[in-house]
Amino acid sequence: MNNLRNELFYKFALTVFLIIAFFEGVLMFALVKSFDTHLKDKLALVAAEINPTHFNKNSLVDIQHRYKVFPLFVRLIKPMNDKYPNVKLGYKIEKIKINGVWEKVLSYSIKKDGYIIQIATLYSTNDDKINIIKTISIFISFIIYLVVLMIGYKFIDTIANQIEMSFEKLRRFNSNVSHELKTPLAIMKSEIEVALMSKNTDYEKLLKSMLQEINYINDITEKLLFLTKDNKKISFEEVDLEELILELFEKYSSKIEFDFDFGEDEYIIQGNKTFLKMALSNIIENSIKYGANKIKFTLEKHKNKIILKIKDNGIGIPKEKLPFIFDEFYRVDESHNKKIKGFGLGLSIVKNILNLHKAKVKVESDLGKGVEFIIEFPLIPHQEKKNS
Length: 388
Fold this sequence. Notes:
Blueprint: H1 2-49, H2 57-67, E1 73-77, E2 90-98, E3 101-112, E4 115-122, H3 123-197, H4 203-228, E5 237-240, H5 241-252, E6 257-261, E7 268-271, H6 273-289, E8 294-301, E9 305-312, H7 346-356, E10 360-365, E11 371-378, H8 381-387
Parallel strand pairs: 6-8
Antiparallel strand pairs: 1-4, 2-3, 3-4, 5-7, 8-9, 9-11, 10-11
């Protein structure tokens, strides 16, 4: 998985680098063109200001300060015998030696009032400005690149972790399903073989055992189907939680002792009774499975919610394992001890059903201290008005 993370990051870094480099190149090209155009425009304006017949040093200084072109070279060429020298009009960039140093010069030549006016300035001044802006731009781009890389790495790391978790869940899914389905099938196979080989076989006992294992497989299948099907379109109605819990009492009272604390309020929510019964049944069966012989149901009504607390006196759950108990196929006892039947889907189904009812669930427990489920159901609108 680290290889995937690194590969994604390298590809992301290269893509971002190419994008920034492309826009940096476009920006520099546009910048050079803009500076060229600006400088040429200044030379054209200077040429328009010059009066060849009344031009002097003071006029040159005035124009320099007005248009901020430094240095500024002006040359006035008067035609000889009404003939102009062979001077190319317009703009020209050339290299000339000034004080022993080769400099790039931009010149502009124009005919005006019987003269050829040649105006020139060092193109290197333009280059200096462009280089300063280019340095600043590269520095800003580098900072942006680093920031984007940091954000990208966090994003890629999150995605890679999610993929890793998905692969881990899939691996655990395959391992657990294979384990859970293989064992009962092996038992059925061996018992059928015994039934066929033995002359004095108690067929009823064997068939009951096989039926139990088949029911076990069927239970897995039903729970897997529940977790995979779309339950968003289930019908809701008003459900009395107190009445629902008493129905569960009738079903499980022979297996575990019940205690109730309901108070005098009505505890009616909007929900699906069948699904809610399934969720609470899974919690009760989980308590029985993990050694509880007593379970207490408490109902409380608050301003905008009904709180259902379910507390047992079983072996409890270690605190470090509490964040994972609603994961599919997660079992607190990871040894697949056959004394504790199950395949880690019950509490996942509980969580899914409560999510459908927009209910919040919190679990408090510690090893040897039992487990308490605290479930908050939202009140239906007319009850909220009644309570306010």
